[in-house]
Design a protein that fits this description.
Two copies of one chain form a homodimer. With 339 residues, chain A is of the alpha/beta class. The first copy, chain A, has eleven helices and 14 strands. The model of chain A has no long low-confidence stretch (mean pLDDT 96).
Chain lengths: 339, 339
């Protein structure tokens, strides 16, 4: 069995059933005004959500989304054997504080905006490897906690370049299981770090696009699938500029991504009307789009096979200040309605 | 097979062979002056290691230790299917920059000072689950990059309370494999988050000790083993105060930890002579003690069964400033010379 699971240097195939038996998303006000407004489970108008700080609000997004995902899976907290969560805030505190009362065996992860894909990947490995029956996977981000930590005080009102993205306020959580009803996770393509020398922290789409293209190309080569196999290939979150770079880079490798290619950062906002420039970003963006929109579309029969490609820019304010380039990574998770 | 792997809510047993086939440690000057000086592979006198910043020096510690561990395992970089690394620096950049040129499928993790145990756990799951043949696991810390980020400028020369610990400058890395010669990872006990209301970031031993005691008690209960089964139960890194709290807490649960109990933070420094107060800390502390001292002792036949219990305080400077208590976690990894 062991040898069969590997399809290439980066790709593995699940041997047994790994199903997404529960998924939930909670987002903020701006996300609730976007095109996917009807897909999220709950929307919250108050950026503080009744808490004293944005970090505590983000923690609450995680907590509430976790409870909702477990409940939608028909499980209770004590049924969950393992959880993988992470976030953008220093030392991933929104995740550890979010998990504090749960008493679920906990592994913290960090993959920047690729965290949703990383958590699904590790969850799938744990379930398929026989280490857990039910695993919780997810992440969050918050516009205000991210701006405060990574950029400028909100009160400063700094102007943003057209390539900048808007950090999504929201959380997405899933419950994976080896039993029950749900979408199948069939393959994982784990990313390698890709650094193309981009230094502009306001152009993370350009920094991450080569990693996304590389992982998509590798996944298709390793599985022998054509891009058309997927009803949707969803990167997240490159924004509109990064998305067009992915199209260019895959084209140069003789792979044509058609209308089935989209980006979670582009999907979540109306980039023309919502003043978000290149689109959404933050761990919570691809998490909420997956757990809200994409899985709902699969449940309704509108999508059968989806390649979810989480993309992360692995920078920090310190690395930027020290003149470093931005390493990026992309992990692909293949999800199908049947196996 | 699946059901057999679980021995309790938090403990799993490896079904096949998961071996530590390579291990390496590189530490700084102060660590090289401590009692374990002869156990590390390389010691580096210059805190910058020829780099322009402490963060870049820590990155170099990771890179060089990775190369050494892979080489000592008799492998090349292209043999490694997966890597799990993390660190304390914001957004775990020492790990992502350390992995940037390797082109190894990469998962970033965050477990504060429990990172070494977390990386070993996830690596073991990946190998035993059949997802990888060879996995790299490890972490680092650096006294100066940690002080700068978490505490006060070094130039300030602030006085430290007796409960404070000294962040180790160093890195420890292992290569796990399903083939070859090495120590066996036999069981994992994954920690749940434990928060006992400690708010003092200068007393992290007290914050982490209940998590460590809880994981040790759970591990022994789940496996049916007595404390004496282990030649060494090594927590890391609680320091001398935290260590005595673990003794008290386990005693209250009718478990007596004898001379076979020690703490990596106490082992790495001469706490009386080296002015480190309660002992060492930082992800690199338990990593270097495991990959330098403990595994060497096992290779030399002086230790047969070891329970390595990585402990992490999941705080941030922001959470402390917002008056939050300190959540902690401990993951146990059982390592034996034979299976």
């Amino acid at each position: 069995m062991k040898a069969q699971k590997r399809l290439g240097k980066q790709t593995v195939q699940m041997a047994g059933d790994v199903k997404i038996i529960g998924n939930a998303s909670i987002v903020g006000k701006k996300e609730a005004e976007g095109p996917l407004r009807n897909d999220f489970d709950t929307t919250v108008d108050d950026g503080y959500w009744g808490e004293q700080s944005w970090e505590k609000a983000e923690t609450k997004f995680q907590k509430e989304t976790i409870n909702l995902a477990i409940s939608k899976a028909g499980k209770s907290i004590s049924d969950i054997n393992l959880m993988f969560t992470g976030d953008l805030i220093n030392q991933c505190t929104c995740s550890s504080f979010g998990a504090r009362e749960l008493q679920i065996p906990f592994y913290g992860i960090f993959g920047a905006c690729s965290t949703m894909a990383e958590s699904l990947s590790l969850g799938a490995i744990a379930v398929d490897g026989g280490f857990a029956e039910n695993v919780l996977c997810g992440t969050s981000s918050h516009f205000a906690s991210a701006e405060k930590q990574f950029r400028l005080p909100l009160e400063y009102g700094g102007q943003r370049p057209p390539t900048a993205q808007w950090t999504v306020t929201g959380s997405g959580m899933t419950v994976l299981s080896n039993e029950g009803e749900g979408m199948f996770i069939t393959h994982l393509t784990t990313g390698v770090i890709n650094d193309n020398g981009i230094k502009d922290a306001n152009n993370m789409g350009a920094a991450m696009a080569p990693a996304a293209a590389d992982t998509i190309i590798t996944h298709l080569r390793d599985t022998g699938r054509q891009p058309e196999f997927y009803d949707l290939i969803a990167t997240g979150d490159l924004g509109s500029f990064g998305m067009s770079i992915v199209r260019d880079l895959t084209q140069k490798n003789d792979l044509s991504l058609g209308q089935n290619y989209n980006d979670c950062g582009v999907m979540i906002f109306d980039t023309k009307k919502q003043d978000v420039h290149a689109g959404g970003s933050g761990c919570g963006c691809s998490a909420a789009v997956l757990c809200g929109h994409i899985l709902k579309q699969m449940q309704e029969g509108n999508l059968k096979n989806v390649l979810f490609v989480g993309t992360g820019a692995l920078l920090s304010t310190t690395s930027v200040q020290q003149g470093e380039t931005i390493p990026a990574i992309a992990h692909a998770v293949a999800i199908s309605v049947s196996k």
